[in-house]
Amino acid sequence: MARIPTDPLFGAWDNVFWAVADPANRLIIDHLALGDSAVGEISHVIDASSSNTSHRLSKLERLGLVSITKTKSGNLIYRLRPEALQPIKDWLQRFLP
Known about the structure:
The protein is an alpha+beta fold. It has helices spanning 12-20, 23-33, 39-46, 50-62, 86-93; strands spanning 37-38, 66-70, 76-80.
């Protein structure tokens, strides 16, 4: 996966589009749209190692697309932040009737 762009002109919209351009990230977003999940389950969905999945989730969290909650037992649970996808909806609505 490509590095997260750091150019200050690279706005929030571009960050969201950049994140969803990756097929594995879209699978993660689709999965989390169904409900909260742990790394192991997400790894299975995208057919990747836990390490790779954690790395992806970390990037999605930095971009504001995913939030992380730590359970009492120390497990990390990931949740989609659907409001972060608003830039895509706003942009597409310009072209839809």
